[in-house]
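Backbone-to-sequence.
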């Protein structure tokens, strides 16, 4: 039996980190074992703390967060109400499971500057470098180096990003799930906003996301540990999202499975 190495490609969901806009920063209330002992009395009438092991009860957490907090998988519904040129967009609970497990491909764009476009030419050059040809249902991961800034406000403006044409280049080849180690699959939003103000061209607004209107696809954002995979292809990715009814995204713990 072949040995396998499992690489966790997700970040922790943590309270208070400034790597999201303020409205999206998670909040977590921790109920420790001492507080849990008190709440257990509501479920077991008549018990005393002394009846519990070391007078301690259960631990529970209450979490307030967005479906786009932490490492998550965006569904086509996040981008627009329609996909595939007019069909209703799939929500996260409707994503086919076969999309979320497949051969992984890692493309390294850490040499590109913050806010730069990752173009079709860049994708082709990266694929030539690793001697690989994209096939349907490959899960393509984009490494920008932004993950080094997770936990800081700078994370929001770090990394290069995909554009409309480079996204369609992948989805036209049958790719259904992609991922990136930055806050957004697109270039960081301040760069998009600045370019729109300068050129007044609406095509720059969320262009990589809006590519999903033409061909439906999912992307993971806020990935981590891509360097730990160690190889550009020849591994598998598992990235099944949490099912949230009619939601635009779901939390995911993507894992690279590498044979050793």
């Amino acid at each position: 039996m072949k040995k396998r190495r499992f690489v966790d490609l997700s970040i922790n969901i943590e309270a208070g980190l400034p790597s999201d806009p303020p409205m999206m920063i998670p909040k977590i209330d921790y109920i420790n074992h001492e507080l849990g002992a008190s709440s257990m009395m509501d479920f077991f009438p008549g018990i005393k703390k002394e009846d519990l092991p070391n007078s301690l009860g259960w631990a529970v957490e209450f979490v307030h967060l967005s479906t786009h907090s932490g490492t998550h998988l965006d569904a086509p519904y996040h981008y627009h109400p329609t996909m595939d040129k007019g069909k209703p967009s799939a929500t996260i609970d409707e994503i086919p499971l076969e999309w979320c497990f497949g051969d992984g491909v890692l493309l390294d764009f850490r040499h590109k500057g913050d806010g730069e476009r990752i173009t079709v030419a860049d994708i082709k050059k990266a694929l030539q470098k690793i001697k690989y040809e994209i096939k349907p249902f490959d899960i393509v991961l984009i490494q920008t180096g932004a993950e080094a800034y997770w936990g800081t406000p700078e994370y929001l403006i770090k990394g290069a990003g995909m554009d409309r044409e480079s996204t369609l280049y992948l989805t036209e080849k049958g790719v259904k799930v992609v991922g990136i180690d930055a806050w957004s699959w697109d270039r960081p939003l301040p760069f998009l906003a600045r370019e729109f103000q300068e050129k007044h061209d609406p095509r720059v607004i969320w262009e990589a996301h809006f590519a999903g209107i033409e061909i439906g696809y999912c992307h993971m954002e806020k990935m981590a540990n891509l360097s730990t995979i160690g190889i550009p292809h020849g591994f598998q990715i598992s990235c099944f999202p949490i099912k949230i009814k009619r939601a635009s995204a779901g939390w995911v713990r993507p894992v690279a499975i590498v044979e050793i």
